Protein: Benzene 1,2-dioxygenase
Organism: Stenotrophomonas daejeonensis
Amino acid sequence: MSETWTFICDSDELLPGEMKTGFDEVTGAPIVVFNLDGELYALEDQCTHEEFELSSGHLDTAEGSVECVLHGARFDVRDGRALCAPAYTAAPKFPVKRENGGIWARDDRD
């Protein structure tokens, strides 16, 4: 588990309906942060069906989901749960915060 917060981007670089990526500085986990109507959510940037980055997929702001471009698995960006096959396992959700004009996230898994 990482106690170190990773800088993702400046707050004004992540507008509603956008996503930005980074890597946890301690664990190396890929992170994608979503801005959904001003609320920030962070998931591991990896589809749980086939290890492919979710950030290359489409963010559906109406549904609050991201779709993996590889096989069409969709995940709820708010809690990471898988919304349809071929993914059945949730994408890990990470803590995210705004601080000092920036957006920060970290891998908090044990």
Notes: DSSP finds no helices and ten strands in the chain. The beta strands are 6-10, 19-23, 30-36, 39-44, 58-60, 65-67, 74-76, 93-94, 96-99, 102-105. The mean pLDDT is 96. The chain has one domain: 6-105.
